[in-house]
């Protein structure tokens, strides 16, 4: 009888520099309806976790795409207050290929130096925040990246160019739409030292979201 070799499980945790996009369900993609941006938190041989603006239901099919890892499909296995985890639907060959990509990415991750201070655009450490309109309407969103003058945002709606919105505690104007979200130009340039804190959701809003998640 031939021996069956168990393939090792490979996983990377605590990733905060990889942005991607995801599609919920198998319907045609529509920005702000089932196509959104996300931020990778963990990726392994059999599952991944992301921070995301819209959290699908347990068991719902999702496809997630990253430049470094390709498109990965599966079903939602866990929900978190800031995102979700999916378990992959994949063959043994797909698993081997993903393991190779994870290994290659991890080697680059630890050998490449990055200085956020020299970058014009940055990725916030807490990308999930709140977006609001002047009529007090608000909902979760995800900041893809930001600068002192604006931010790229993904949320469960697609505003009109020219619409006024507040991201975290910074107000601006929607100036451009793209497939997974939209760009907001702030009315005033912000301080590089304080902008990330201002883009975070107010604590009272985060507390409401935590209680809502626990109640589900």
Notes on the protein architecture:
17% of the residues lie in helices and 40% in strands. Strand 11 (164-167) and strand 12 (170-178) form a beta hairpin. The protein has helices at residues 92-109, 195-199, 203-215, and strands spanning 11-13, 19-24, 35-44, 47-51, 61-66, 70-80, 83-88, 128-132, 138-146, 150-155, 164-167, 170-178, 181-186. It is globular, with a radius of gyration of 18 Å. The longest helix is centred in the middle third of the chain and has 18 residues, at 92-109. The chain has 2 domains: 11-109, Thrombin, subunit H; 120-215, Thrombin, subunit H (Beta Barrel). With 216 residues, the chain is an alpha+beta fold. Strands 2-3-4-7-6-5 form a 6-stranded antiparallel beta barrel. It is built from 3 helices and 13 strands, in the order E-E-E-E-E-E-E-H-E-E-E-E-E-E-H-H.
List the helices and strands and how they pair.
Layout lengths: L10 E3 L5 E6 L10 E10 L2 E5 L9 E6 L3 E11 L2 E6 L3 H18 L18 E5 L5 E9 L3 E6 L8 E4 L2 E9 L2 E6 L8 H5 L3 H13 L1
Antiparallel strand pairs: 1-3, 2-3, 2-5, 3-4, 4-7, 5-6, 6-7, 8-9, 8-11, 9-10, 10-13, 11-12, 12-13
């Amino acid at each position: 009888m031939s021996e069956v070799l168990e393939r090792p499980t490979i996983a990377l945790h605590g990733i905060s520099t990889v942005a991607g996009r995801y599609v919920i369900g198998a319907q045609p993609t529509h920005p702000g309806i089932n196509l959104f941006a996300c931020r990778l938190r963990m990726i392994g041989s059999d599952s991944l976790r992301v921070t995301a603006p819209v959290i699908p239901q347990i068991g719902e099919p999702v496809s997630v795409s990253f430049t470094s890892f390709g498109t990965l499909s599966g079903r939602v296995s866990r929900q978190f207050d800031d995102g979700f985890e999916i378990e992959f639907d994949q063959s043994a060959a797909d698993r081997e290929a993903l393991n190779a990509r994870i290994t290659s990415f991890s080697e680059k991750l630890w050998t490449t130096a990055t200085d956020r201070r020299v970058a014009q655009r940055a990725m916030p450490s807490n990308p999930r925040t709140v977006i609001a309109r002047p009529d007090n309407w608000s909902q979760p969103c995800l900041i893809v990246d930001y600068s002192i003058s604006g931010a790229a945002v993904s949320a469960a709606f697609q505003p009109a160019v020219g619409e006024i919105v507040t991201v975290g505690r910074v107000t601006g104007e929607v100036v451009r739409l793209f497939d997974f979200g939209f760009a907001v130009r702030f009315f005033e340039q912000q301080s590089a030292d304080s902008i990330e804190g201002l883009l975070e959701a107010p604590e009272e809003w985060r507390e409401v979201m935590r209680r809502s998640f626990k109640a589900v």
